[in-house]
Amino acid sequence: MDKKVYIGLGSNMGNKSENIAKAIDFVACIEGVNIKKVSSLYLTAPWGRTDQDDFINQVIEIETDLSALNLLYCLQDIEIKLGRHRDGKWGPRIIDLDILIYGEETSLLEELQVPHPYLLERLFVLIPLAEINSEMELPDGSKIREVLSRERALTEGNDIIKL
To answer: What residues does each domain of the chain span?
Structure first.
């Protein structure tokens, strides 16, 4: 049975919009993956490590019959094809592809944690998630609109600009 999966995309190096578009094209070519929805692009300040360029972020909804780990390996392969180098946690990157939610499943493996461990803290994924599924119930049982409202209040002044 196909799983509904949400993937966060981000880029803050080179032609950011083009990097994301290329990554989506590669995701669309993965056997067993069907892209269902694509959010708008959002310009966002860096999170975690702030001494770098702003990001462009986006979220896509896919359906897949791949396991979470197989999907992760496919996404990491796409990152490598697009020139990503892992130079430290939260550093600049040509492309970043994160599995945010993988159906109803949870995983606490060293290489993959789903739901994404920082999902509820990152407006740059919550806002595009709400755009493509405004009625989403998050893994902790909360509604995305409630979490988004709370996070916006906590991070007032951190602008996220829809492109």
So the answer is: 3-162
Whether the full predicted model's pTM is greater than 0.70, yes or no, is: yes
Separation of alpha carbons 23 and 159, rounded Å: 25
Angstrom distance (rounded) from CA 149 to CA 71:
31
| CATH T-level fold of 3-162 | Alpha-Beta Plaits (3.30.70)
One digit per residue, the tens of pLDDT, for the chain of length 163 reads: 589 999 999 999 999 999 999 999 999 999 999 999 999 999 998 877 777 899 999 999 999 999 999 999 999 999 999 988 766 666 788 999 999 999 887 777 778 888 887 887 788 899 999 999 988 988 788 889 888 887 766 555 567 788 8
The catalytic site residues sit at 84, 93, 96, 98
- The closest alpha carbon to 3, from 93, 102, 74, 78, belongs to 102
